[in-house]
Amino acid sequence: MTRCNFGGCRVEEYSSFWRWIVDFLTLYVFGCYELLRQLISSSYPHARHCEPAPPSGFGGTNSLILLTGCSTGIGYELLKQLLAAELDVVAITHNQDAGLPRKCKQVVVDFGSTSSTENGCITLSGIVEELGAKRPVILVHCAAVLHPKTNANYSASTIVTRTLTINLLMPMLFVKRLSELLSGIVWIGSSTQYIAPNLFDSQCPMHVAKTPFSAYPLSKLLAFVFAERWSIINSKPVVVIHPGVVATGLYRDERGLVGKILRRMMPFFAWTPAFSARRILQLVSYGGFFHHLEKRFDPSGAPQGSIPVYWDSVTMGPGLLPLQILDQGQRNKIAEALSHITERRMASERSSASSMD
């Protein structure tokens, strides 16, 4: 057992052998089951149903889009399609060398660092004031997908801490710093519904996030809860989207016959990032979530009226997303978990600052 960096809670430290077993069961057995289930599902949408979406879905062509996670995968495809629709996009990336199109502004924000996140918010505030005067400003958050497979060199407790920080705490800080400038949010994330039942049986959320593979979906679920609460508090529209199973380099590092078989299977069962991006834009455009912003935008910077938070699971149907089937007590439990983790993080940072002094 090792002490979690958030303090007070303990997480299991698996040997490399057991971590390999967990990896196999999680990625292969459950992953193949999920892909097969989606393929068989009668509600599975096909590419021909996802035509390019009109830019009016984002409050009209006058909107300014702040897009995170656009270096690769779904985020990169969203960037290309938004630029093709002639929308103004500010690309928010983890590093400067992202190979992005020249016609969009780029801001570097490392969600693993508090200082980088805060500095990025200052830069973005200046850009929004320059480009976004009297126009809708919509954040499309598609970043912070830190899967355990990308952290093989870290200990289990470190992975848990990094996952909760990058997927949850820094995006929360990011949104809070920009709240007054934002007109609405599209929050994209995955792997949330599988952790929900375990969360309600545990007194401490860190007990749920005791392994890297459980910390990942927990961070996504809590981030979705934060987005919902932000919408209610600020009376601004939020669309929360589960993108489904998307083959963004999945199994590319697996060697041998197993790796070849899995890579060959992916195109048959999973979506490409480009198709998922089209589906997301279609849902936002035709859902009417931001249509009111262009016509009813207050020059003071706040949209008049609000739209309830909308949850959608593009492959599995909205009924399977956990927050649509939770009672008030369960929602309160999730809110408590969110506060618990935030307090742990703040206490940890205060302790680190005191030790440096």
Automatic annotation (TrEMBL):
UniProt keyword list: Oxidoreductase
Protein family: Belongs to the short-chain dehydrogenases/reductases (SDR) family.
Residues annotated as domain NAD-dependent epimerase/dehydratase: 65-234
Keyword Transit peptide: no
GO terms of molecular function: oxidoreductase activity
UniProt-listed InterPro entries: Epimerase_deHydtase, NAD(P)-bd_dom_sf
Pfam families per the UniProt record, alphabetical: Epimerase
Protein name in UniProt: NAD-dependent epimerase/dehydratase domain-containing protein
Domain of life: Eukaryota
